[in-house]
Amino acid sequence: MPASSEVEDFTDQVDEACRLIAGLQAGSVSPEEFDRREAVKVKEAAAKEAKQQATRPVLPEETAERQQQLKQKIADLQNSQQKKQKARQRYNDHVSQQSSKHVTDYTKWDFFTPDDEDDDLINSLTPNNPQLKAMEADIDARHARLDS
Predict the structure, then answer these.
(1) Which of 29, 39, 94, 131 is deepest in the core (most CB within 10 A)?
(2) Residue 75 counted as domain residue
(3) What is the tens place of the pLDDT at every residue in 9-21?
(4) Domain ranges, residue 83
C-alpha cells in the first residue's frame, strides 16, 4: 500500500492535470503556458535527480579496481563464448561430413556369400550324437500321438 504522502502527491498531480485540460478547453490557458509549465516540471525533476546523485555515496563497485575486474570478467566471458561458438561450428561441420558416410548401401547384401566357417561354427555348437537323435525321435513320436 503506498504511503499517504505518495497518494496526496498523485491526487495533486491529477487535479493539476484536470485544471490544465479544462483551461485548454475553455481557452483560459494557452498551449504556450502549458508547455512552459511542463518545462518547469522537467527542470525540477532533473534538479532533484542531480541532487540525489550528488548526495549518493560512492559504492565500492564503482572504484577503478572494480571496473578493471568487471572488464576482465567481460573479456573472459567473451572469450568463452567465442570458444563455444567455434566448438559448435566444428561439431556442425563434423556432423554434416559424417552424415553422408553413414548411409547403408543395401545392394552389397546381394553379393554376400556365407563362408564355410559359419557352417562349421553352427555345427560345432549343436551336438550331433546318438543320444540327441534318440531324444529328437522321442519328441517327434510324442507330437505325433498328441496330434492324432
Answers:
(1) 29
(2) yes
(3) 899 889 988 888 8
(4) 64-99
